[in-house]
From TrEMBL:
Residues 163-619 form the Glycosyl hydrolase family 13 catalytic domain. It comes from Cellulomonas chengniuliangii. Belongs to the glycosyl hydrolase 13 family. The gene is pulA. InterPro entries: GH, GH13_cat_dom, Glyco_hydro_13_N, Glyco_hydro_b, Ig-like_fold, Ig_E-set, Pullul_strch, Pullul_strch_C. This is Pullulanase-type alpha-1,6-glucosidase.
């Protein structure tokens, strides 16, 4: 319910003059060297009249300004005579110093109409002069009688129009259907079966149906043009007839298709007899297309290119002669850019005869609808008249005067905006005068100005005698509201009514409409919005109940929709009311749901007819509704669904309260009426469920329930309330003295809840008389004053007088100056605040607006973000567009290119072959704006952002640090003076995310860029888009290096120092260096001098760093080597390394050249190498814990111990002992078992520059309390935590190459499994109970699955472990639409606190995650984890853990930072400047450091030994070194069954071998990446086969790039991103080569003939510029087509396969894609649910998408597709692709489809293990036995044939004793294929038994001909044929 804040009614009026202030540069104050006070004199052309001897006399005492109480401010009053003057202020009586306009040298103009006393004020601080009238008119008085006038009303207004296309309404006389012509339709124009031709309607039919029109309540009929038209124009497909009336050849006669002039007179007479007026639609802009051009080209030629010339050849502009005077004589052969030609037979075609003169036309070619062509260009060939010519003006005056004589009551003027304004000024005045003089006092003319903004429409009423214009702005707002958009659009629409308010005009005269013959019907506009009939009724209610004259477009009252091939516009919307013969018309449905059919449609009982008739009757009976004021009361209800307003007639003064609701739910709102205490009677809405009565309280408050999609009309029982006459007057002018330009608004602030009329007037100061500006009728009264005719400096007084219903008045005045501000200064432009901010432009229609360039369109709204910027994202089709930004719903305040007020349009292009999401952003401070279609949105995320208004640091999506480029030079800048002093880091992010970011040196994903802010000084960030270089300029910067750590202490004796700070050209030896240290962090730097602590001189080693040192630290190449003095002992070094450190560099004279902090990992590794051999964490001996924490820089470490896991009490404090290797140790008691503990580490922390006391958990924790707040002492050998099944179950043994891995998330496994007890869902325990998930794993294992790979199960920092505190999304998400955004909104709202996350946020590496445990306390989670492992082992499945040692979730002093609070600055990989690298996503771990590597190795060993884990997958393994991975391998190999209970050598290792980030290309060490692990047995994921099968890559902007498994080249999806047919074929052939290589193990040496015809080895085949083949052995490659990253396989295929692909075929392609990994000679990796068509509702990155989008139904009932649009953060750019797919029910598989996919996948597993030939396990065997027949340039697209030959040949082993070989055919095409393989002729292949007896009947259609070696395979099928062992073989 809306809340209404009431306030006392007050008799107050606040006057505001909206103005554009003139801004200038404010120079600094000028001080005087002398002690004497400065004097200031007003000087100028007015001095001699103010008592001076002469003008411009700086030493005249008569005009000297006197000091005021304000320092530096002087003022004086002078009576200035009438006239034009100039002035400025002189200082100290001379011209040495003087100030004028805006504090500059220019004189200030002043114009007054009579003697006026003015106050001049000069401020010496700003050097600006202010000016104010001393006396302004005050409260109301008798003089106001001349100002107060009634609001303007046009006597010809007040009608209800029925707009009819005569040819399509009724056929009363079939004899005139051919227009008196003979022949076919091209001669007569008649073809009732074609919507482009005449159908037979006529004036006679219209006359016959007057009862029908009268019954609708119409009081005026508006006819489409009825003059004689050229019957047919155009050729070929564009041929059509002039049935619409706009191709006129004779302006004096009725077209014979429609009737005669006499029939028109008869129609008018009959209509007048019913009090119905008749309006003619007229044209002055053009005629029919009669004139051709001799040049036979028709492109528009502007005047700049070819001006007009007169007959003598003199250039001229018609605009200079458009005032009605003499016009240049023109020559048709020379005067025009084109030579007009008229066919002889058409020489006299046009009537009147003057129209046949070709020089009376513009003859410039077809309009482009922009610039001068709007008024000079031909309307698509129609002859454009030169309306500047007096002959044309006079001729059309005569033409239309004659129609007035015939009896026409008014004109609708076509294409008014395409005719010059001077024409209208002359023509409208003369025609209106003629009508008035000839008995037509109410004659009314309204123009068609096709713009939806009052600022563009109103001038036709203000500046001409046009009575009104068609209200296109209303049409846009009303249709949007009817479709369900917020009523804020209506608020903006009606707020702009003031544009029409003058002394003679108002918005009350505007014809309002909902649709027409050009833009289409309201029925079409609402047809897709739900309940379209009621929405059309709602739109008509709005039209009839609001101000203006309603226009019903014929047929709307019968529910016509007007659908068609033109998108509902133009000809689509011109149906026949009589029985149509056009199939397109007859076959479409009406809004009622009824098929239109070929029947007459004049049903007076039609729902819309009766609704409109009722509205018309109510309106006709109410003066308030026909012509009363309209006062907005409320925009409220859910999503702004309710719009309420009051209508009041000034004579009756009774409130008619209207409320409309566009929601499908009833809305209850509270509002304040204009009539306190009134009882209201409902006149409309009761039938829809509204209450029949309502009562307002004494303050006018009323609560009202508005039925859904309905309007309510209430009439008060008394007159409106009045002002409190005793209240004081409050006058306010927000910008007194403001500078005025153009048409500034003049506003008055009156009581919000009192009806009153406010009259405005102005006068030039000194003039006793007032000039009226108009009377406003709302509670936000405003008028506009056109000041263009007033001279600069004219001082204007404005007055507003408001009169209430009782005649009480309040009044106020203000003043302003034309052209120059006289307010003494200028402030920034207003912030839009809550005003409507939109992006009006040529894209508005496709955004859902009713037309383009609509500043009030709600669908183009930008919303204010938390960071202060405005933004909006819209889905736009490809094309070129232009736009601006508008504030307030109109053009009053708008910004163009560069943020300039009223500036140029900004152009952009949406590329691609499908709609794209485009985000627009606007800065309300700078007014700059841009969009993602123009380039990336650029921000500067960093550690400074929280100081600048961002919610958090490192927020790429915060526009408070938005880089802008107003001048468009490609250099984007952001400047802030607001940063406090400190050291910060920054980089640049593109498009508000980390997906593309640039750091130091312009490197993508590069290092953070440090900078130091001095505090209170400007810091400017400049980013050059072309180079990606970010520079940070700091005013008054400190010494270089300060705030950074660019010194590197790499061993006991050496510090590496950057050479960049050595002065250019100087030798390094010319500088000296000093090490400063302080254990307590007391070093200070002031003016470059380091104070505090101790200092030691460093010696420059001219030999530089040694080769050994550079091997260890390759990134330090080129650094200087500084040696520590020999006198420093090891204890000294240890002491220094544990405190604050700085190194300073000095010049010979002692000047400081640089000061930098010091990185210490190198020296710590050197000092404490022995710690690598220590057992860290907790070890147990005879039940007692031995505890060790490595903290070499700590000054003190205490153990804090809590008995048990209740940590609310005070802990026991236990001192620890420091050991020589930097460890701190303690020995505990048996009783400590199960106790919680922490370490309290006292240590210097560089990031805080202080000694901190950190209470931290143990980095080696194996057990924890809930949410990991404390470590827990648990002995992993304790039998209490060793479940029996885990102890007894044997670990399955699997060869690496046999690995068939199922990637599974612990929570996904059972979170939605109804067969598992609710308390066990999502837990480790679910793996050990009988449920659908376990049954599925067992089924897969029986088929061949060997291993379950679990996503991270170590302790995770980002999941709530208290199950009672875990949040779930609100509501029932299953009830929402499959393409809705609501699901993701609700999921995102709880994502930070729900139970789900992938888990790649390490907290403690060696303890199980607690959120997956029933009991996360202590050892309970250990036991539950082991229960899971035991159950999987018992089911015959190995367990692989996903390990993330490349980063931690946090660093520094964050609560989830462990390592950095124990040894600050050691464990994380730092940039050269000392900031943490984040290329992995988060805080990168430097496992190349000895103790970081040890932590990784020890953790892996713990999981393998103490949990019996069978394998490990390493996240971003390429960020580790080969050395580190071999250390892991070596440690595992040392585990033996006898000593450790496990065989560590059997543990399989694999990981992501991607090459990127700061370690890329082996910059810091030899990385564990693809191709660099040969001989190690460690596997890497292969993206080669993945991308080849799926198509494209995982981050494609357009996800429809096809691959081998998604129809590339064979079944194209039509997306342009796939390229031409030739490009598709070439890519498909190469993709097939990558598939072949992947099937053969992706070996670097495997060779075959590729698609280019060459025999190439794997490392010679290209994959995105890299060698495709990289492995030495097949187990070093993990082949996959689906994983937790990116879209699931099913979702990928949904994007890529043609939309109409049947689900059964989608199932087959899913199976075929999986077959490429299942049948490969490598470990095979499957994403959980891939066998069940698993979908994540197209989510590209579901890491934090909750259970909802990560839904996994292992029972096979629901695959998860259609659960709403996936989360916006990761998928917004793909929503335009995703929405239609998700909404398509045909793309949702049934349980039967899922079952078919499952059976196909099981068959693949069975095939994989049906013969060892799929798993040869040896590179040499693969090269010997595997071939690809049919490969090469002639290979069939979409087909791969693989042969494995197992015949004994020489020393080749016989791998499968039962087979001589196998043949595999992958047919990914949509057609059967036949492959002739002559090299296999004679071989005896048969379909493999698995498939012969399997689930797929289609594959059994495979045939083999041994005679010819021919195999035939059905479409979308993988077929395996085996060759049984030949008899006698042996």
């Amino acid at each position: 319910m809306a809340t209404v804040h009431t306030r006392p009614r007050r008799a107050a009026i606040l006057l505001a003059v909206g103005a554009v202030a003139v801004l200038g540069v404010v120079p600094p104050p000028t001080g005087s060297a002398a002690a004497e006070p400065r004097t200031f004199t007003l000087v100028g052309s007015l001095q001699d009249e103010l008592g001076c001897a002469a003008d411009w006399q700086p030493d005249c005492a008569a005009t000297e300004l006197a000091p005021t109480d304000a320092v530096g401010v002087h003022s004086a009053e002078f009576t200035v005579p009438a006239g034009s003057h100039e002035y400025k202020v002189a200082v100290n009586g001379s011209w040495d110093e003087a100030y004028g306009l805006d504090g500059g040298s220019e004189n200030i103009p002043l114009v007054v109409a009579g003697p006026a006393t003015l106050r001049f004020t000069f401020d010496d601080a700003t050097h600006r002069v202010a000016l104010a009238p001393v006396e302004l008119s005050g409260g109301p008085g008798p003089g106001d009688d001349a100002i107060v006038t009634a609001p303007a009303r046009d006597s010809g207004a007040g009608e209800s129009f029925y707009f009819v296309m005569t040819d399509r309404f009724a056929n009363g006389d079939p004899s005139n259907d051919t227009g008196g012509r003979t022949g076919d339709r091209l001669a007569t124009g008649l073809d009732p079966t074609d919507k482009s031709f005449y159908h037979g309607g006529d004036l006679a039919g219209l006359r016959d149906r007057l009862d029908y029109i009268e019954g609708l309540g119409a009081t005026a009929i508006w006819l489409t043009p009825s003059f004689v038209n050229r019957p047919v124009q155009g050729t070929g497909a564009s041929v059509s007839a002039g049935y619409h009336g706009y191709w006129i050849t004779d302006f004096t006669q009725i077209d014979p298709h429609l009737g005669t002039n006499a029939e028109l007179e008869a129609l008018i007479a009959d209509a007048h007899a019913r009090d119905i007026k008749v309006y003619f639609d007229i044209i002055t802009n053009h005629t029919a297309d009669v004139i051709d051009y001799a040049e036979q080209t028709y492109a528009y030629v502007d005047q700049a290119t070819r001006p007009y010339t007169d007959a003598a050849g003199v250039p001229f502009d018609p605009a200079d002669h458009a005032d009605g005077g003499p016009f240049p004589t023109l020559d048709p052969l020379t005067s025009f850019p084109y030579t007009p030609v008229i066919a002889p037979e058409d020489a006299d075609l046009k009537v009147p005869a003057w129209l046949n003169d070709p020089t009376l036309y513009h003859n410039r070619g077809d309009s482009t609808w922009t610039g001068e062509s709007v008024t000079h260009g031909d309307f698509s060939g129609l002859d454009d008249l030169m309306t500047e010519h007096p002959t044309v003006v006079d001729g059309f005056v005569d033409v239309y005067d004659e129609w007035i004589d015939l009896g026409i009551d008014g004109f609708r003027i076509d294409t008014a905006k395409h005719v010059n304004r001077e024409f209208w000024e002359q023509w409208t005045a003369r025609v209106l005068d003629y009508a008035h003089a000839n008995g037509k006092p109410d004659f009314f003319m309204f123009g068609e100005v096709y713009d939806a903004d009052a600022a563009l429409l109103a001038p036709y009423m203000r500046d001409t005698d046009m009575n009104a214009v068609l209200d296109f702005a209303f049409q846009a707002g009303a249709s949007s509201y009817a479709r369900g958009f917020s009523a804020t659009g209506l608020r903006a629409l009606f707020a702009s009514d003031d544009r029409y308010t003058t002394a003679d005009t108002s918005a009350a005269a505007l014809p309002t409409f909902l649709g027409n013959h050009d833009m289409g019907r309201i029925g079409h506009m609402v047809k897709d919005s739900g309940d379209a009939l009621r929405r059309s009724e709602l739109a008509h209610s709005l039209m009839y109940l609001t101000r203006g004259q309603p226009v019903v477009y014929y047929g709307d009252e019968q529910g016509f929709v007007g659908d068609g091939d033109l998108g509902g516009t133009d000809k689509d919307a011109r149906q026949s009311m009589f029985a149509s013969q056009v199939p397109e018309f007859t076959e479409q449905r009406l809004l009622t749901g009824e098929v239109a059919g070929s029947v007459d449609r004049f049903d007076p009982e039609a729902p819309l007819y009766t609704h409109i008739a009722e509205l018309a009757g109510i309106r006709e009976a109410s003066a308030a509704l026909t012509g009363g004021s309209q006062v907005e009361r409320l925009v409220g209800g859910a999503d702004g669904s309710v719009y309420a307003f009051s209508r009041v007639d000034r004579e009756e003064r009774v409130e008619h309260l209207v409320a409309l609701n566009n929601s499908t739910e009833a809305q209850t709102v509270s509002l304040t009426t204009l009539t306190p205490g009134a009882a209201y009677e409902a006149l409309l809405g009761v039938d829809d469920g509204a209450a029949a009565t309502a009562t307002a309280d004494g303050e006018g408050a009323l609560t009202l329930t508005v039925p859904p999609l309905a309007a309510v009309l209430l009439r008060a029982d008394r007159t409106v309330g009045t002002l409190d006459a005793d209240a004081g007057l409050s006058v306010d002018a927000p910008a007194p003295g403001a500078g005025l330009r153009g048409q500034p608004p003049v506003t008055a602030d009156v009581d919000d809840d009192t009806w009153a009329e406010t009259s405005f007037a102005y006068r030039v100061v000194g003039d006793p008389g007032w000039t009226p500006l108009g009377t406003a009728e709302t509670t936000q009264p405003r008028v506009f004053h056109d000041v263009t005719a007033l001279a600069p400096g004219t001082l204007v007084e404005y007055r507003a007088v408001s009169t209430d219903a009782a005649g009480n008045r309040v009044a106020g005045s203000s003043y302003a100056s034309v052209g120059v501000a006289v307010d003494g200064g200028a402030g920034p432009g207003p912030d839009p605040g809550s005003e409507l901010v939109t992006v009006p432009g040529s894209h508005n229609a496709v955004m859902g607006c009713a037309g383009d360039w609509q500043p009030a369109c709600e669908q183009a709204r930008l919303s204010r973000r938390a960071d202060g910027a405005y933004a909006g994202t819209f889905t736009l089709p490809p094309g070129s567009y232009e736009y601006k930004v508008a504030v307030g719903g109109s053009w009053d305040v708008n910004y163009g290119a560069g943020g300039a007020p009223g500036g140029a349009n900004v152009a952009y292009t949406v590329t691609g072959g499908a709609p794209q999401q485009v985000t627009f952003v606007y800065d309300p401070t700078t007014h700059w704006f841009t969009s993602t279609a123009e380039g990336p949105l650029l921000t500067v995320p960093g550690s400074h952002q929280s100081e600048l208004g961002c919610a958090a640091d490192w927020s790429p999506d915060c526009l408070a640090t938005w880089l802008q480029d107003p001048d468009g030079d490609g250099a984007y800048t952001y400047t802030t003076p607001a940063l406090p002093a400190g050291v910060y880091e920054a980089k640049v992010a593109h498009d508000l995310s980390w997906a593309e970011n640039y750091g130091a040196g312009g490197a993508r994903d590069g290092a953070n860029i440090p900078f130091t802010a001095p505090g209170g000084k400007p810091v400017t960030f400049t980013y050059v888009l072309a180079t990606h270089l970010l520079t940070i300029d700091v005013a008054d910067p400190p010494a270089p290096g300060l705030g950074e750590q660019r010194a590197h202490w790499i061993d006991e004796r050496t510090i590496a120092w950057p050479p960049s700070w050595i002065p250019e050209g100087a030798p390094a030896a010319s500088s000296s260096f000093r090490l400063h240290g302080s254990p307590d962090g007391s070093l200070e730097v002031a003016d470059g001098v380091v104070t505090g602590g101790e200092g030691h001189d460093l010696a420059l080693d001219p030999a530089g760093l040694t080769p050994d040192q550079l091997t260890r630290f390759p990134a330090l190449a080129g650094h200087l080597a500084l040696r520590l003095p020999d006198g420093l002992t090891r204890p000294d070094v240890e002491r220094l390394a544990g405190g604050e450190l700085l190194v300073s560099q000095h010049a010979v004279d002692g000047t400081t050249q640089a000061v930098s902090g010091v990185q210490i990992p190198g020296v710590l590794d050197a000092l404490y190498a022995g710690a690598v051999d220590r057992d860290l964490g907790v070890t147990w001996a005879k039940g007692r814990p031995e505890m060790a924490l490595w903290a070499p820089t700590a000054q003190k470490v205490d153990l804090l111990l809590w008995r048990g896991t209740d940590v609310t009490g005070q802990p026991l404090r236990v001192p620890t002992r420091r050991q020589s290797d930097g460890s701190w140790t303690a020995r505990g008691e048996r009783s400590w078992a199960g106790s919680a503990y922490r370490y309290e580490v006292t240590v210097y922390v560089p990031s805080t520059d202080a000694v901190e006391v950190n209470a931290v958990t143990d980095p080696y924790s194996v057990a924890l309390t809930t949410n990991s707040t404390h470590s827990v002492l648990v002995d992993l050998a304790d039998k209490a935590f060793r479940p029996r099944q885990w102890e007894r179950a044997k670990q399955p043994v699997v060869r690496p190459v046999d690995q068939t891995v199922y990637e599974l998330h612990v929570r996904d496994f059972s979170a939605s499994d109804a067969t598992v007890l609710p308390r066990l869902r999502g837990t480790y325990g679910a793996f050990a109970v009988q449920g659908a998930g376990r049954a599925q794993l067992r089924q897969l294992q029986r088929a061949g699955l060997t291993t379950v790979h679990l996503l991270p199960t170590f302790d995770i920092a980002t999941i709530q472990e208290d199950r009672d505190a875990q949040r779930v999304p609100d509501g029932d998400l299953a009830e929402l639409a499959p393409d809705s955004t609501e699901q993701q909104e609700r999921v995102a709202a709880v994502a930070a606190d729900d139970a789900f996350n992938w888990g790649y946020d390490p907290f403690h590496w060696s303890a199980p995650e607690g959120s997956y445990a029933l009991d996360p306390e202590g050892g309970a989670r250990v036991a539950e984890f082991r229960t899971m492992v035991g159950a999987l082992h018992a089911d015959g499945l190995q367990v692989v853990l996903d390990q993330v040692f490349n980063h931690t979730a946090a660093s520094g002093q964050a609560t989830t930072s462990v390592l950095d609070r124990v040894v600050p600055g050691y464990y994380h990989r730092l940039t050269l400047g000392g900031t943490v690298e984040t290329s992995t996503c988060c805080q990168n771990v430097a496992t190349e450091h000895a103790m970081a590597q040890k932590l990784m190795v020890d953790s892996v060993v713990t999981w393998a030994r103490d949990y019996k884990v069978d394998g490990f997958r390493f996240d971003l393994m390429g960020h580790h070194s080969v050395e580190t991975m071999l250390a892991v391998r070596e440690a595992l190999d040392a585990l033996t069954p006898r000593r450790d209970g496990v065989d560590g050598s059997a543990v399989y290792l694999y990981g992501e071998g991607w090459n990127f980030g700061e370690v890329a290309d082996n910059r810091l060490f030899t990385q564990a990446t693809q191709g660099q692990l040969g001989g190690t047995g460690i596997g890497t994921f292969s993206d080669r086969l993945r991308d080849a099968v799926r198509g494209g890559g995982p981050f494609d902007e357009d996800p429809r790039v096809q691959g081998f498994g998604s129809g590339a080249a064979t079944d194209p999806n039509g997306a342009s991103v796939n390229g031409t047919a030739e490009e598709q074929l070439a890519r498909a052939q190469h993709q097939a080569d990558l598939v072949r290589l992947g099937l053969a193990g992706n070996l670097r040496d495997f060779a075959f003939q590729t698609s280019d015809g060459q025999v190439r080895s794997g490392d010679e085949i290209d994959y995105n510029g890299q060698p495709a083949g990289y492995a030495d052995s097949p187990e070093e490659v993990v082949t996959y087509v689906d994983a937790h990253d990116n879209e699931t396989l099913f979702d990928s295929l949904t994007h890529k396969l043609p939309r109409d692909t049947a689900m059964s075929d989608r199932v087959r392609m899913n199976t075929l894609s999986l077959a490429t990994t299942a049948l490969a000679q490598t470990p095979s990796f499957w994403h959980a649910g891939a066998e069940l068509l698993r979908s994540k509702s197209l989510d590209r990155n579901s890491y934090d998408s909750g259970d909802w989008f990560n839904h996994l139904d292992l029972a096979g009932r629901d695959n998860g597709f259609g659960r709403g649009l996936p989360p916006e953060q990761e998928n917004a750019d793909l929503w335009p692709f995703q929405k239609a797919l998700l909404a398509d029910p045909a793309l949702k598989p049934s349980p039967a489809d899922i079952a078919a996919a499952e059976q196909g996948a099981l068959d693949l597993l069975r095939l994989r293990f049906s013969t060892p030939l799929f798993r040869l396990g040896d590179a040499a065997l693969i090269q010997e036995k595997v071939t690809f027949p049919g490969s090469g340039p002639d290979a069939a697209p979409g087909v791969v044939v693989m042969h494995v030959d197992d015949r004994r040949r020489g020393s080749s082993p016989d791998v499968d004793k039962d087979l001589d070989g196998l043949l595999v055919v992958f047919n990914a095409s949509d057609e059967p294929v036949t492959q002739v393989l002559p090299e296999l002729a004679g071989r005896r292949h048969t379909l493999a038994p698995v498939q012969a007896k399997g689930s797929d009947a289609v594959v059994r259609r495979t045939t083999w001909s041994a005679a010819t070696g021919t195999v035939s395979v059905p479409p979308r099928t993988v077929a395996v044929l085996v060759e049984k062992r030949a008899s006698g073989r042996g």
